[in-house]
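Researcher: Going back to the complex we discussed earlier. I've cleaned up the inputs and rechecked each line, so this should be the final set. Can you rerun the prediction on the complete assembly and write out the structure?
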Amino acid sequence: MKLTRTLAALGVSAAISLAAGSAFAQSAAQRAVDAAKQYSGEEITIVWEAGLQSLDPLNFSGPLWEKLTGIKVKVVEVSTAEMFTKILQEHRAGTGAYDALNVVPSWLPDLAIAGALEPLDAYVDKYGFREELQEIAPVYRDNQMKHDGIIYGFPDDGDVFVLYFRKDIFEDADNMKEFKAKHGYALAAPNTWKEFREIGQFITDKYKGKVHGAGFIRVPPLAMFMFQERFRNEGGKFFDADSMKATINSQVGVDVFKAMVEDNKFMPAGVESWGFVEALSAFMSGQTAMVVSWPPYGRWTAGYGLDEKVLSWVPKTTIAGKVGYALPPGGHPQLALGFSLSVSSSSKKKEAAYLFIQWLNSKEISLQRVQLPYALRDPFRDSHFASEEYKSRWPDAVHYLDVLKAGAVSGLLDLSLLQTDKYEEAMRQGISRLWAGEDAQTILDDVAASWDKTTKRIGVDKQQAVYKAWAAKPNAYPN
Amino acid sequence: MDTLGAHRSPAKAFSAGRFADKNFKYLTIAPAVFLILLIGLFPLVYTLMVSFQNINMMEVDTSFSGLMNYEMLFEESRLWLSLGHTLIFTAIALPIELGLGLLMALLFLERLPGKQIFVALLVLPTMMSPIVAGAVWRLLFDNRYGPINQILGWIAGEPVTILWTINPDFVYPAILIAEVWQWTPFMFLILLAGLSNVDSAQTEAAEIDGAPYWLIFYKIIIPAIWPVMAIALLIRGLDLFRLFDVVYALTQGGPGTMTETISVYAYVQGFKQFETSFTGAIAFLVIIMLTVIVIYALKKMELVEK
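Model: Rerun complete. Updated structure for the full complex:
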């Protein structure tokens, strides 16, 4: 019931906006709707991440688009791990099975080079979307949209790591006094990883295991992003730009690996196997005092939308109103994953597909979508961070949006090269070996050797050019 | 009456008729054989062709690239390690499945109340899709929510946190438990069928002569069920060589590549990293290996006439 009401409210709000006459007639969303009406009765297929993410086109944007334009949207749900494979497979087979795509931005170069993505510049100009694209937060707009100067995707999800901490524990007078006496500085959200460990250990000791200092996501595919973030915050570089030799096995890398193992010791036993849900559940039930994760944690810990039926699997929050938001230690959070909207080059309905993604990504509609409590799309436009509507969603939403906005300025890009997955796979394997107890230096030497081998196979000069271009971006490494 | 036959030379008509009679069986199965060859051979030939090209994520180069991909096979230590892991799984799981399957079959050979229901329940895991079985065992082994650690905790009297899919000491046992759980019933079913057909007159005669059970088992029962047992071993051996689903669901080949089988490795190369031509070469290597193994096994098991 609650879900129906929310959807109805969002739908009506969007429909009213679109029908609001002259003031809105020139908006990109309206232009997309007007142009798309010529394709009424057709069906377009879009690839979307399976699970909560896809409830956006299934329950909200898909039905609304059909109502406005007569174009039906078929959603193909694919897990993130299989998305790249599916998109490239269908492209290679030339099936034309997908019209519109969700693409992780770090895949953009590979998919663009493979010819799987349709260049969008001509459509952007034809349907006047350039101005609204400029209003996307710079870090996403400048880094997650183009390859070789050509637009292949619209950044559509402001993924960024946030540190969530228990304000009630951090602001407890006894805790503050004891901590200050022991460590000589105030108990607050940690600015460095050293502080993080001291605070984490203090809380685990103080609460004798009933509350642990932290409980992190540690499954290798996701922990890999946390390693990337911490490694760079501590001064690490992935490659020597001159020789293109991997430098991930530098002393910084080894120290970060060792520190990650040490940190696990004040986290709950078995944390090495924790994924998104395990870390969420432990934090929501009050078992952990700090966690670094994606933006939905902030909404759910505040209780936003948790009475929706589709979120019934999310543990009920016991910490609403007690959660503080901060940038993770180091101050440069990883912009881990994210999604851009693209059009498949093998689609037979490219224009209709383009119009749909322009409408989805537009200022008006995207604001509705990032407020869907279940859909996992996070604020990515300047207007989202400043939205009064969003700020009123829960008492601390203002602070939450401030932290997301700060992260969108100082955030670090995922490593993106040619055949990124090969480099990521070596990192994932390295982290799984780390949790299995192997020596940090040995693991990282193997990862570096694997990276060098991959670079050699791709071509050192070719990859070096891509790396140099990536590393020159302001958000590749902390300034 | 002037018929066509009347003008045909009797010798020719006799010869054509004789050809049709003699080759009737071949003519009738020819369409099916053609279809099977088309379905079976085409992918094989296509894979072979691709393995001599250079198709990967970045380029579709269909020109002849020589033995490049086959040379890479020998340079890839990860490939040979994954082959080693595959052999370890096969060498451990196959005898366990055979032993347990045989024991269960011997047990169920006797008249038991509710035997049919038990047999039906026992074969349920075999009917499950292997990837689902892997997912189920992943949940069972989960250190936070899985019942296995909970039960071990009750027994130990303190919380048990075994990381079944992470700790190097437990990953092989975890995969083997899941694999043996799913496929022992297959052995059981086939061996039960074999045992049901052992001539009881021979075993009874041996018993009357005072032969101990182990001798009867070794000298009469095993030889009697050997053809069935050999086929079951061959089928399961080949399945284990292609082991993928349970490993992928439980560990994805980790930690590192510690449990990576040849199938998981080929999947990663082919479908994650789009090394299409190299994967074609891997596929051919596996085909050659399996062909040699099957021919050798068939000879050793004396299932084909020399």
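Model: Worth noting: The domain at 2-155+340-376 of chain A is CATH 3.40.190.10 (D-Maltodextrin-Binding Protein; domain 2).
Researcher: Good, that matches what I expected from the previous run.
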